[in-house]
Amino acid sequence: MKTILVSGGAGYIGSHTVQALFERGFKVVVVDNLVTGHRDAVFSQANFYEGDINDTALIGRIIKDHQVDAVIHFAALSLVGESMIKPDLYFYENTAKTNVFIATLLSHGVNKIVFSSTAATYGLPEEIPIPEASKTEPINPYGASKLMIEQSMYWMEKAYGLKWIALRYFNAAGASFDGSIGEDHATETHLIPLVLKTALGQREAISVFGTDYGTPDGTCIRDYIHVVDLAEAHILALEVLEKGMESGAYNVGTGNGYSVREVIDMAKKITSLEIPVVDSPRREGDPDVLVAKVQRIENMLGWKARHSDLETIISTAWQWHKGHPMGYR
Fold it and tell me: Looking at the annotation, which residues are catalytic?
């Protein structure tokens, strides 16, 4: 069995990927500093280390003790708004620490990494659906910090033989089908959990930012990908790297989108609860539509979203939030 080191494996997407790795027969080691992750989200059979990815002694010891074969790298800060007021923090936590992390991996003979990137690398796209060949011009430090990592991996491959795949996520959503793990952020910014927290009475209303976009119902359209499908994409990326697939970046989405009002209406249907809505002004920088072009990942990795219809996404998320109204706390 291969042993996979998962950085940030106590986070939302990381914890679901750890669970999926075990289901596929991998051995897993998790390292997470628990700044945004949750110890209770980590699959019980995983070897867990609380620590930072730039702790070279710790990472070296983990690689040696567990004979790590490859890495899935999630550890990062990911709040766009925070990155705008603390850009230095994001370039340090995301970019600088990752460079130290990759250098440590390479110095210990680990040269395969699947990287958690983001559609924020594209900025404001000129083409919808967005292909991987689109210009990458981030409009916030979060997206820039991730793009810089992609660029550094390109050069690390040329210099040291690093093999890498960057997965550019669109909107991760949903929860595990057994209801054991889900989405729990100290500062929640994602639409679906905010809608469901409103249904639970934890918020007075859900704000709809902009009702005059060029979409059928006037609200923004986004591409939502079920977190279980996203976890599967990471495992397939690992497997194709093992088979010698060339390095590169792949979108992870569905190629379709749902509007803010469609999300709210589906949540009302699934919860059978009233969800108060407040129409608010547009937020600066929000495009009308953000949807992924997904032919590359389907053709090259053999991946396809299987659980990312809106009803399944919100049903699984609702199961998690009902069972964990205060999150992991």
Answer: 142
Q: Which domains, ranges and CATH numbers included, belong to the chain?
A: 3-172+224-252 (3.40.50.720), 191-223+255-323 (3.90.25.10)
Determine the Cα–Cα distance for residues 305 and 252; give it in Å rounded to an integer.
9
Strands (E), the chain: 3-7, 27-32, 47-50, 70-73, 112-118, 163-169, 171-173, 206-209, 221-222, 224-226, 248-252, 258-259, 277-280, 289-290
Which residue shows structure tokens 């009702």?
Answer: 211
Cα–Cα separations (whole angstroms), residue 141 to 8, 91, 102, 240, 289? 20, 7, 21, 31, 21
Using one digit for the tens of pLDDT, what is the confidence trace for 177-208? 999 999 999 999 999 999 999 999 999 999 99
Return the CA Rg of the chain. Answer: 19
- The candidate with the shortest Cα–Cα distance to 238, out of 287, 179, 173, 167, is 167
* Strands (E) located in 8-111: 27-32, 47-50, 70-73
25: number of Cβ within 10 Å? 8
For residues 235 and 17, the answer to whether their CB atoms sit within 8 Å is: yes
Task: Burial-class residue 183 by CB neighbours within 10 Å (0-12, 13-18, 19+).
Answer: buried
219-265 pLDDT per residue, tens: 999 999 999 999 999 999 999 999 999 999 999 999 999 999 999 99
Q: Rounded to an integer, what distance in angstroms lies between the CA atom of residue 51 and that of residue 34?
A: 8
Location of structure tokens 């925070």? 82
Residue 209 is given by DSSP the state: E
pTM of structure: 0.97
**Tokens of residue 13, six digits:** 């997407």
Q: Which of 13, 12, 22 is nearest to 47 (CA)?
A: 22
Copy the structure tokens of residue 94. 């995301």
CB distance 170 to 223 below 8 Å: yes
pLDDT at residue 303 tops 80: yes
* Closest to 183 (Cα-Cα) out of 261, 273, 204, 191: 191
Q: Confirm if 251 and 223 have CB atoms less than 8 A apart.
A: no
| Count of C-beta atoms within a 10 Å radius of residue 160 | 13
